[in-house]
Amino acid sequence: MIAALAEAALRSFALGGVVWIGLNLFRVRNPHVHMTAWTVVLLTSLAMPFAMHWPTLTVDRLPLSVPVLDESWPADFSMLEHPQPSLPIASGAAIAPVMKRGLSIDWWMVATALYAGVAGLLLLRLAIGLCLTWRLARAAKPVKSREMIDADVRVSRDVGGPVTFGSTILVPPQFFGWDAKKRLAVLAHEGAHVANCDFYVLLLASLNRVVFWFSPFSWWQLARLAELAEMISDARAIEMIDDRLSYAEILLDVAASVKPRPMELAMARASTVRARVERIIAAASLPVAVGWRKRLWIAAAIVPVVIVSTGMIAYRTPDPVPVGTDLGEVPAEHYRPFVNFYAMGPASVFAIFREGDELYGQLTGQRKLRLTVGKDGTASYASSFGEITFPIDAERRSSELMLRMNGRDVRAARVAEMPMAAADASSLDQYVGWYRIAPNRVLTVRRDGDRLQVQESVQGGAALLAEGADVFSIRGRNLLIFLRDEQSRVSRVLVQNAVFGARLAPRIDAATAQAVEADFARRLARVPDRFREQVPADGGKEMILRGIEDLRHGTPNYDRMSAPLAAKVHRQLDETRATVVALGALESIFFRGVGPGGYDIYGAKFENGTAEFRLLIDPDGKAGDVIFRPDGNDELGGIVSCSDEASVRGRAGTSPIRIMVYNEMGDDIQVFNLDADGNRRMQSVVRPNVSWAAVTTVNNPWVIADKSGRCVEILVPGRQTRFHNVEAANIGTRPGRAARRAVPIANGEEMLRSYIESVGKGQPEYEHMTSEVADITRQQLPFDQAILTRLGALRAVSFRGVTALDSDIYVAQFANGSAEWRIGVRNGTITKIALGPNF
Question: What is the pTM assigned to this prediction?
Answer without folding.
Answer: 0.53
